[in-house]
Amino acid sequence: DYLGYPNAIAMASDFELEVKIALEMKHFANHIMKVLSGRYIHGENPIIGGFGTFPSRDELIFIKNRAIQFMPFVKKTVDLFCTLDYPDVPEKETIYACCEPGNSNYGFWGDEILLSTGEKFFRDDYQKLTNEFVVSHSYCKRSRYKGKPYSVGALARVNNLGERFKGETGKMYKKYFNKRWHVNPLFHNAAQALEISYCFERIPELVDEILKYEEDPKAVKYTAKSGKGTGLVEAPRGLLIHHHEITDGRVSLVDIITPTAQNAEDIERYCQIAAQKLLDSGKEDKIKERMELVVRAFDPCISCSAHMAEVTHTPSGSWKNKLEEIRKNSSPVYIGAGQQDRSDDACGIDIAQKLRGLGFKDVWLGSEIIRDDKLEGYTEKNTLVFFDAVDFNEKAGKITVLPLEYILTHSSISHKFVPFAACIKNLSLQKNAYVVGIQPDSVARGNKISPSVQKAVREILNHLRN
């Protein structure tokens, strides 16, 4: 978003160390989740009264030592995110809400909700803050406090609790925190970086506390009975509230207030502010990009579940015009992508192999690109043309040409092309790359290419040959 790359993988050629650090941190975090929770997401190991399997001393000591080893790289991460050039649009005051950990500590859970206004609510009174409602243009519930939007998340926590940071995180907070953090939602990214530092400093302390317990303590036994209760915890996206009622040992009522429901109003408000200010200043072309920055800063999960995309109907035959334009204005490099053993997904490989048989130069298979770095040496004078099966909800055999960057940022099948993007070290080359996609009929393992896709393959080959 801030350095002009379509995705993190594309950054690897210019920022190899930074990307490796990020991937190693992610791997370490996943390891902690698997040890404590039993799997990487939606853990099953924590149970009422303890853990199904308590982590061993060796595992805990490894986690502690690994966290200590990471600290120099964590500091680099904080420096990177806190020194990014965050735009000043949008900027507007809001209310911030988070858990109050108590005892002047920074933390991720508590019995009270703390607002940036100084007000506090006991956990059972959470509805005084949330006041959920719905709007006609969205399926997402909304929340307002006294009729005003508010924000939760890392930026809320740092604004409300940042003075409580200690150690290296406290030093970095004092170095980087300023008044713009109060009004600019894009500083969510910087706040998350500070929290990463806090977590890495806290891990060794927590492990030392856990090691004081006896080896493999058993879960505390309980008896289900009637009752009710409310719990507050800080998810990465912000304040998460659970209210449960039990009647005769069975769940009779559940109320879950997610961070997304609480942030939705402010996300929309900041997007509107950004759009209006950019429109007023004659920067209409920046509106979509800035709105995407706002959404991703607030809630990375939305980036995975919802997208702003322009959907168009591709006229029959337009792919021929695009290929002719590419051949006229550059030297194309043809790449056959896909999997040989998955019926229509092999169509790209089939095209590349047949182009070679026809004597075409600069033709590669996707596996060769990834394995042997075959794109080294090509320049902006070349245009990369990938052939592959692409599902865009058309009739089987339909042919469409799409820019590679569009697929990487807007398509549900972007994961197929990320490995190729990592191999394109020339950014100009990546921006000038296209995918000739054929709508598959089936990508089942072991079947032959379907007749409709075979016909499309012949049509492409005949066009390129003539």
Q: Would you mind describing this structure in some detail?
A:
The longest helix has 26 residues, at 57-82. The chain is built from 17 helices and 14 strands. β4 (112-115) and β5 (120-122) form a beta hairpin. With 466 residues, it is α/β, with parallel strands linked by helices. It has a domain at 318-465: HybD-like (Rossmann fold), CATH 3.40.50.1450. α5 crosses α7 (188-210), α6 packs antiparallel against α7 and α12 runs parallel beside α17 (451-465). The chain has a 5-stranded mixed sheet with strand order 11-10-12-14-13. Strands 5-4-3-6 form a 4-stranded mixed sheet. A 3-stranded antiparallel sheet has the order 7-8-9. The chain is globular and about 75 Å long.
